[in-house]
Each structure stands twice: as C-alpha cells, then as structure tokens.
Here is the input.
Amino acid sequence: MPELPEVETTRKGIGPHIQNKQISQVNIRHFGLRWPIPSNLAEALEGRHVTQTLRRGKYLLLDCGNGWLIIHLGMSGSLRILTQTEPPRKHDHVDLVFADGSILRYHDPRRFGAILWEPGNVWNHPLIREMGPEPLDPLLPADYLYDATRKRSQAIKQVIMDSKLLVGVGNIYASEALFRARIHPATAANRISKQRCQRLQQAIRQTLQSAIDTGGSTLRDYVNSRGDSGYFQLQHLVYDRTEQPCRVCGTPIRQIRQGQRSTFFCSHCQN
DNA sequence: AATCTTTCCTGCCGGC
DNA sequence: TGCCGGCAGGAAAGAT
Here is the structure.
C-alpha cells in the first residue's frame, strides 16, 4: 500500500545505503512489470555510481550520472537492502548489486510497479513532467487547492487523488485528510469555499507529514527487513474502520464507493 | 467470489 | 469542425 509517506520512508531507508556506491551488477529475474523493464538496463547501470536518491510524488528517482532510474512501487512493491547475498524469494524481481556486496532488492507480487530508465533529463520524462505540485512543498501557495478546483464538479475525494492536480494522495490518506478537514468526501470540489479548501490543503500536508514521521521510526529496521510496514494503520482515523465509532464523536464510521474505490468518513463530523 | 492496492488509457461529452 | 478539459470505467497480478 505504498502512498507518498511509504515511498518517502523507503527513500530515507535506502538512500544512505546506496549513496555514492558503484553498481557492479544488475540481475533481472522478471521483466514484466507495469511496463517491461528496459532490456538495456543492466548495460546502462553497470559501473555507474548512484549520486542522488530523490522522490517526486510516488516515484523514486536515482541519479546514476549517465541517466536516471525511475522506480514506482505500484500497489504491492517494496525495496530493501541486503548486506550480503541471499537467495531470492518469490516475487523478488530485480537486484542492484553494489561493489561492496550490498544489494538493493525490488519485490512486487502484483507487478503494478515500474522500473524505467531515462537517459536524459528526468524532469522531462512524460510520467514526471505532467505531475501536480508536492503537497509538502512549503512554497505551495495557501490557495493552490482552491484555485485548482474551481472547474472541477467531481467529488472532492476523487479530485485530491488526481496526480495532475496534486501528487501523493492515495486512497487511504484521501479519506484521512478529508476527515481532518471535516469535509464530506462526496462534496463537489468547485462548491467548497476558499476557507475550507485552505483547511483541506493543510490537512493533506499534516496527514502526510505525520505518516512520514511515524514511518521514520521504523527506519532502524530497514536493512534486511521488508520495505513495506503495517505501521501506519495504527494511526488511521477513518480508513478501514467501517461501523467502528468515530474517534472524535463516537458516530459509526460509514463506507461508500466512489469511482470503484472505498471511502470512509464520519457523517457527523464531515458535512 | 469479491476486494484491495496505483494510475494510465480509452472513449464520451460539452463548450468554444 | 476540431480541439480541449473533465470525467467514468476498465485494465494490469496476486493475496486474502
């Protein structure tokens, strides 16, 4: 269930272990992810050093000097660091082996993730170029969400999950942020006042940031452990809490469907 | 058997 | 008429 906080936690977890290390070998056991892994990937990577590990939205971007490795974890992907060689388990599709013997291993049972190679300017890559702003960017104008939603009659929950509008808000944190902002998820986006849009933008930022802060405490266990952790769900206010009492007012949490996805909210707190 | 996770893609619609 | 943006629905694989 990687959303922005999980991807950021992964970035912080792997970054120090691969920074400035030389890639000596690339082992690909399964090319069939969301898009095929480029057949020249090993050739492009071997011998290069990783100089930066960045995140844009839910994408990880590894600067390899001669180009960029673009990694998306999809629905079920994870990355972990091995300090020595270890037999691959089921769904361990790709290894980056470093000169010091450590390994960055990509695991993805459902294979909705992606591993791509951009030899030029990664910011011009079609997947990166079209993305909306980062909700955690301190320079994001307070009225960004208000201005960006004026022509959107769609339900606000689906609008904040549109990555062309704003990156990083997936199904779980969309429900969580709307609860924090006390806005009903089915409200038409363009009928939400400026003040409430400001509140929602703030709630999105706080929700993502506190999830990242929580995930940060699991980093100690990053090496030799799974990159995805169930840790975040301890903090859910509404997600997956159907019929359970609202943590604020006690009203049973309701579950509805919006665009084939489940939404959770409190009908008393959110209106 | 239905549901969950992400997001790209196709096709349709209305406005200009 | 053609172009554009908004929007709904479908698709991918596997675990539970």
Summary: The mean pLDDT of chain A is 91. Residues 1-3, 34, 58, 72-76, 110, 112-113, 127, 161, 163, 170-172, 261-262 of chain A lie near DNA strand B (CB under 10 Å from a C1'). The longest strand of chain A covers residues 92-98.
